[in-house]
Structures are given as C-alpha cells and as structure tokens.
C-alpha cells in the first residue's frame, strides 16, 4: 500500500489565527503583476481575491483573475500547485481537462510570517451549494442536473484514467460553476470600484475585509459549466498496486472502505459523488446520523446507516476488514486538535464487526430504506436514479462503476 499521510480535522474546526493569513489590501500589487481588487472567499487555509492582471487590458473583464493566497507555509498549497500542474499537462486533448479548474500560475510571496503560496485561476461565479439557491425551492431542475452530472463524470474520468489521481474531497464547495455572461462579473467589479471595501480590525490590529461573493440572480442558464476545484488533498496512485491508507473525504460522503481501513483507490471518488447527489436532488445529506450530540463524527453510526440503506456488507469486505484490524500505518497521523493515531481502527473507533462477521452496533441501525430518501422524484424517475446510484454506492469498491461506465446509464439520457 502507498502510505499517504495528512493532518485531518476530524470534525474539529481550526482555531482562527490571524497571523497565518496574508494581510492583503485592495490596491496592493503582488508579483509585479496582480493588483488586489475585492475579497470573494476565505477558508481555514487561504483567502481568495479577484485581482487585476496588469498585463491585460484593464478595461476588459477577462483581465480579472481569482487569486488564492494560501496561509503561511501551507503544505496543502504546495501539493495543490504540483498536482494541478501535473493535471493540466497530462493530456490536453481529453475533453475532461476543461472540467477541472486548475491554476494558470503558481508563485510565492513573503508575508510578515514567512513564505506564502499564491495560485491564479479563472474566476468562477460560485460553488454549487450557493448556485442551487438561484432556483425555486433551492433545487436545480433535474434535466439541468443530469447535464451537470454528465459533465462532472467526464472530468472525473480524465482525473482517474489519464492522471491516475483521486480527488478525495468532493463536496458542494469544491464544485463551482462558471459565469453565464462576462457582463455579470463586469457589473460586479464596477460596483466595487465605486466604494471602498468594508473591514473590521482583529485582535492583533489587522484589517479583515468582508467577503463579497453574491453575483445576484442568474441572467440565463446557457453557458454555465460546472467545474471541479480544490486539488490540495489529491492523491496520485500511479501503479495498480498503489493504495491510499490514511483517512480522507468529508464526513457525510466518506466511503466504507475508508472507515474500515481497507485501502482506497479511484472508486472512493465515485462513492463520494453518489452521496452528493442527495444534496442536489433533495437538499439534504443522504447520511443523517454521522455526528453525535457533541458534533463528533461517529463511524459506527455512519456504518449503521449504510447497512440500513444499502444492506449489510458482503462477507468478502468484512473479511478484508478483519484481516487488517491490526495493521498500523507506517507513520502516525496527527489531527488539528493534536491527537495522534496509529491506525484506521484507532482513528475511527473500531472494531465494528466480530469474528463471525456480525455488526457490533445493530442497535444503531435506523429504520430507513433508500427508496424513501427521494420524495421529490416521481416513481419512474426515482427507479432510474436508484438504478444509477446503486452502481456508485456499493460496499465493495470493485463493484462501483467507473466514471466512463456511468456516463452510459439511461438515467443520464436527456429526453
């Protein structure tokens, strides 16, 4: 197995540390090229700004670039820069490359606390979680959603087959949509040229600028393309005997092979995408009991819900899990709350199955079934969708269809 190690949050929020962030200010020029204009996003490891590329005609909206400024000494940004350069250069003829939002430039700046990595991107309208709110009842119409799923599968096919890379972190924040018309961004920028950015002063006297990311109602549906973003947690598995072994994926979307410590490959992304579809179709997560009352991830409850919705895991999966119970990672893994773990079993709080293959927490298995999780779909459409998604949400990783195979499913056919 390929030892892939990272520091995870384990549902523990990072403490905000002002000094970790670069103190960007509107009007400042970075790398003698990019003039900072307006803050459009932030996360625990970076801020994102629209900037003017001073090598372009400043009167053209195309001269605006989204610049991600990573926190001081961010190792995630280093991986993101390297993997995106690899992805962009692998096969420019594959149509899936256009679905992956990779950086056009990567450079370093020196902030007050040290080295910081910057990545320049095509500006995008918004992530899917915000985009869906543009529609009635906050739901993207199903015909349009099918088209977007097809596009995303083409991008994932390129990532998996050509790049041999697992995204590991698919969620509604990391799938973005393009602008429907350049005028939307142009009008947004003109509005912000006329007024100074609002800010507050933090505990160490630094200005913290307000994020502006509302581009208003959609002007049309044509020309909007979803793109997969944020490759900082990606893992390359170049050889057939390469396996990831450390925990990955957002809690709600985590595949059983991760929780059971059975090793993972490209099919974990397929499970991840399948679980996301409930957020888009029903507006809520498929797995609703993954946290306890204190907000801590509970793997045993998550597995119990998988059993309720998908049936018990095959004995082959349980046997592999049992055979790896004593396996320890080559290096311990630390979480942001300074806990240290030596194995998947320790990290996720196992064991979960006894020597006879019996689940140890049957009392947690809820009275739910998969059919009832889709009340918004009519019977025929629900049957087609479940036929499609069961090829993604399979206990056994090898039973999950590839992105290319899923593209042929009747559910995605546009009438």
Automatic annotation (TrEMBL):
A GO MF label: ATP binding
Pfam family, one: Pkinase
UniProt domain Protein kinase: residue ranges: 34-412
GO annotation (BP), single: regulation of RNA splicing
Residues holding ATP: 68
SUPFAM superfamilies: Protein kinase-like (PK-like)
A cellular component annotation (GO) from this entry: nucleus
Key words of the record: ATP-binding, Kinase, Nucleotide-binding, Serine/threonine-protein kinase, Transferase
InterPro entries reported in the protein's UniProt record: CLK_kinases, Kinase-like_dom_sf, Prot_kinase_dom, Protein_kinase_ATP_BS
Highest taxon, organism lineage: Eukaryota
Name this protein carries in UniProt: CMGC protein kinase
Species classification: Eukaryota, Fungi, Dikarya, Ascomycota, Pezizomycotina
């Amino acid at each position: 197995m390929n030892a892939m190690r990272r520091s995870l949050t384990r549902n523990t929020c990072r403490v905000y540390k002002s000094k970790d962030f670069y103190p960007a200010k509107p009007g400042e020029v970075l790398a003698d090229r990019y003039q900072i204009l307006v803050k459009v996003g932030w996360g625990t490891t970076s801020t994102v700004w629209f900037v003017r590329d001073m090598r372009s005609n400043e009167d053209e909206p195309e001269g605006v670039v989204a610049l991600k400024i990573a926190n001081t000494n961010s190792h995630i940004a280093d991986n993101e820069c390297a993997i995106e350069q690899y992805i962009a250069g692998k096969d420019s003829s594959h149509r899936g490359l256009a679905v992956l939002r990779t950086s056009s430039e990567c450079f370093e700046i020196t902030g007050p606390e040290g080295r910081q990595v910057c990545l320049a991107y095509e500006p995008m309208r918004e992530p899917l979680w915000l985009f869906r709110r543009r529609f009635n009842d906050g739901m993207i119409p199903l015909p349009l959603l099918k088209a977007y799923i097809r596009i995303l599968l083409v991008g994932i096919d390129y990532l998996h087959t050509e790049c041999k890379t697992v995204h590991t972190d698919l969620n509604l924040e990391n799938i973005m949509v393009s602008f429907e018309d350049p005028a939307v961004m142009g009008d947004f920028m003109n509005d912000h040229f006329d007024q100074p950015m609002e800010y507050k002063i933090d505990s160490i006297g630094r200005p913290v600028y307000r994020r502006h990311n509302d581009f208003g109602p959609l002007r049309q549906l044509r020309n909007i393309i979803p793109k997969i973003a944020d490759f900082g947690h990606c893992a390359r598995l170049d050889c057939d005997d390469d396996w990831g072994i450390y925990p990955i994926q957002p809690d709600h979307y985590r595949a059983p092979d991760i929780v059971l410590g059975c090793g993972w490959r490209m099919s974990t992304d397929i499970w991840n995408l399948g679980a996301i579809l409930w957020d888009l179709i029903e507006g809520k997560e498929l797995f609703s009991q993954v946290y306890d009352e204190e907000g801590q991830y509970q793997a045993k409850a998550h597995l119990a819900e998988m059993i309720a919705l998908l049936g018990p895991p095959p004995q082959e999966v349980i046997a592999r899990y049992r055979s790896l119970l004593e396996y320890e990672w080559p290096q311990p893994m630390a979480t942001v709350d300074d806990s240290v773990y030596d194995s998947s079993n320790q990290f996720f709080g196992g064991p979960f199955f006894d020597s006879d293959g019996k689940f140890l927490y049957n009392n947690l298995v809820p009275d739910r079934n998969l059919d009832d999780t889709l009340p918004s779909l009519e019977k025929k459409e629900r049957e087609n969708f479940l036929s499609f998604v069961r090829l993604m949400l399979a206990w056994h990783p090898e039973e999950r269809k590839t992105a290319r195979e899923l593209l042929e499913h009747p559910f995605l056919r546009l009438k």
